UniProtKB/TrEMBL annotation:
This is Putative acyl-CoA desaturase. It is a multi-pass membrane protein. One of its GO terms (biological process) is very long-chain fatty acid biosynthetic process. It comes from Rosa chinensis. It comes from the Eukaryota. Belongs to the fatty acid desaturase type 1 family. One of its GO terms (molecular function) is oxidoreductase activity, acting on paired donors, with oxidation of a pair of donors resulting in the reduction of molecular oxygen to two molecules of water. One of its GO terms (cellular component) is endoplasmic reticulum membrane.
Amino acid sequence: MAWLPWMVRKPVYFLGRQWNGVDIASVFTLSAIHLLALLAPFHFTWSAFWLGVALYYVTGVGVTISFHRNLAHRSFKLPKWLEYFFAYCAVHSLQGSPLEWVSSHRSHHQFVDTPNDPHTPLKGFWFSHIGWIFDYRKRFGSYDGKLYNVGDLKKQAYYKFLHYTYPYHCIACGVVLYRIGGMPYLVWALAVRTIFFLHVTFSINSVCHIWGNQVWDTGDLSKNNWLCGFLAHGEGWHNNHHAFEYSARQGFEWWQIDITWYLIRFLEIVGLATDVKLPTELQKNRKALSNKISSMEQEGRVETKVK
C-alpha cells in the first residue's frame, strides 16, 4: 500500500518530539473513540450492554489467547483455521495488527523495565500506560517499520494481510453494529467495550509493574495483581508470566482466575490445542522468591557463625 511508507517513515517534529503518521492517527483514533464512549449514558439499552460484554470476552480473549500466548510466546499450537480465527477476533480489539502487537510485546520481554522497553516505567506511569502508543519509534526501535522480531509471522500471508488491513475490519465492525442496533450498539458494543479493554490491557504494562506482589525471582518490576488478573482474562498474574514466559497458564494457584487458560485447557482436552507448555515443579522451585530469601538468610547465618 503506497500510503504506508509515508505513514511510518516520514516523521514530523512538534511538541518537543518526532511524530509519524501512525502516531498522529493513533491520537485521533483513541481520542475519537473515547469521545464516543462518553455518549454511553444517553444511548443505554440492555441489549447493547450485553452485546458489549459478549464482545469484550470474544475480542479480549482473542488478544490473550492469540496475540499473547499463541503468537508472541508459542505456548501451544492450534490448527491453522482456529489460530487464524482467534487472531481475527483479536484484531477487533483495536490494539494493532498481529505483527505490531507481537513485535512490541517480544521487545518488552527482551528489554523489560529498561530504557529500551517499549512501555518502560522509567518514563512514568502515563507513558507506560498509554503514552507509548503514540510513539512508533519507541515501540519498534525505528521509523522504518520493518518489525525485525516477527519474522515467523511475516512468512504467513494471513498475518501480513491483517497487518495492512486491520483498521478496515474495525471500521466494518462499527458499520455492522450501527446497522443492527443504531447508536446504542455503536456506543456500547464498540466504543465502551473497546475503551474498557484497552485500558485493562494497558494496565498490565503500568499497574502490574507498580502495584501487586512478587512471588518469583524475575529481576524486574512485574507484579501479580488480582484485579487485573480478573479483568484481563488471566493476564494480571504478571509476575507469574515474567517468571515463565512460555507458560500457557498464568494463574498458577486455584484462586488465580485465568479464563484464557481455562479455554486453552478445554481445547487441549478436545484435542485442538497441542504442545501446551507449562513450568515443572523443579522450575518453580528454582524461581521461587521465598526459596531465594530463605537461602540468603541461611547463608547470612553461616557467615555470622564463621565470624
